[in-house]
Amino acid sequence: MAIAAQFPDEQSPEGEFTRQEDSFLEWVTADGTSGYLAENGRYHLYVSLACPWAHRTIIVRKLKGLEDIVSMSVVDPIRDDDGWAFRDGDGYSTDPLNGFQLLSEAYRATDSTYASRVTVPVLWDKLNTRIVSNSDDDIMRMFNREFDGVGGRTLDLYPKELRNEIDDLNNVLYEGINDGVYRAGFATSQAVYEAAVRRLFDTLDMLERVLSTQRYLLGSRILESDWRLFVTLIRFDAVYHGHFKCNLRRIVDYPNLFGYLRDLYQHEGIADTVNFDHIKRHYYITHDDINPTQLVPLGPEQDLTSPHSRDSLP
Fold first, then answer.
1. Helices (H), ranges, 64-178
2. CB 85: neighbour CB atoms within 10 A?
3. Is the pTM value of this prediction over 0.70?
4. How many CB atoms within 10 Å of residue 269?
5. Residue 131, beta-bridge partner list
């Protein structure tokens, strides 16, 4: 029996999910030489609280103190055949900026010929009424550096002296874990699924060893890579373990990874960025080919606020 692909245009003949490339790759810069000057109030971030890629940008916006500098609105977590939509609900709303009904309208306002999948996050330029970027990687870096002169905190998640290490680690995380859960969940052949799951848990096992001797992925300070991993870990037991069949182990079964997850979750302001209702309803209702009943599980119960005891590590 043929298995339906979640995104047919991103599925190989062998049954492997191959994520599409980002389409809008302009940059906001502190000096404006890119054509997009970092200014207070000029930019707007469209996100889903359910999406891990968008969650990364929400976290950096929060940590950098950009909430009054870059406005933000949230789409309905349930994505239907029309794509991400603006509706009124608990934790999401209609579009307060442009009055768009669908996020696809922002894409086509920027490129009338756009025909690929519509994704979040989106960084929108209010001045030129167009998308600057739909790359979470780039938006994270813009927020980290380019808005420092207009009120952003001086926290640096991507310090120059560690950029090579961060980039190398980010690639490992993306291939094995961040995109790895999707490669397992969206696989349409048994062999592809099993390969993705093995790689995922090999990478988690490796990180469990690393975190046995140090508090964070690259030592004693929280860096960009930690937040890239966090957004997958926080969704893992609630969604990826069951819904995507990544079920060899749970994060709660890894003492160091689970302590690390609690450590990051308890960082000031981070719990405010996590919405399990949006997360679970998005995956379990939107992916009706994977979950035809669209029933949303009540669990798991997760104790994310208990002491993590990781502050004694170097």
1. 104-110, 136-145, 163-173
2. 18
3. yes
4. 11
5. 124
- Whether 204 has a pLDDT exceeding 70, the answer reads yes
Kindly name the residue from 51, 240, 254, 260 that is annotated as catalytic. Answer: 51
Strand partners, 29: 37
Q: What is the DSSP letter of 40?
A: T
Residue whose entry in the numeric block shows the structure tokens 């994310």: 304
Which residue among 43, 46, 107, 182 is the active-site one? 182
State the angle between helix axes of 224-235 and 163-173 in degrees (0 to 180), rounded to the nearest 10: 20
Q: Alpha helix locations (H) across the chain?
A: 52-63, 104-110, 136-145, 163-173, 180-185, 190-210, 224-235, 255-265, 276-286
Across 200-227, b (16+ Cβ under 10 Å) vs e yields: bbebbeebbeebeeebbbbeeebbbbbb
Q: Smallest Cα–Cα separation from 46: which of 37, 57, 38?
A: 57
**Residue 194: CB partners within 8 Å, gap ≥ 6?**
none
Rounded CA separation 235/78 (Å): 16
3-state secondary structure of 237: helix
Which position has the token pair 């969704």?
235
Q: Is 51 a catalytic residue?
A: yes
DSSP 8-state assignment for residue 70: S
Confidence tier at 12 by pLDDT (50, 70, 90): confident
Distance CA 207, CA 146 (A): 31
- In the beta sheet, which residues pair with residue 85? 102
Q: What is the tens place of the pLDDT at every residue in 159-196?
A: 999 999 999 999 999 999 999 999 999 999 999 999 99
Whether pLDDT at 3 is above 90: no
How many Å apart are CA 275 and CA 261, to the nearest integer?
15
182/107 Cα distance (integer angstroms): 24
Round to whole Å and give the CA distance between 197 and 41.
43
List C-alpha distances in Å: 159 to 90, 201, 221, 225. 37, 29, 11, 12
Compute CA distances 111 → 59, 125, 153, 292, 293, whole Å: 28, 14, 33, 34, 36
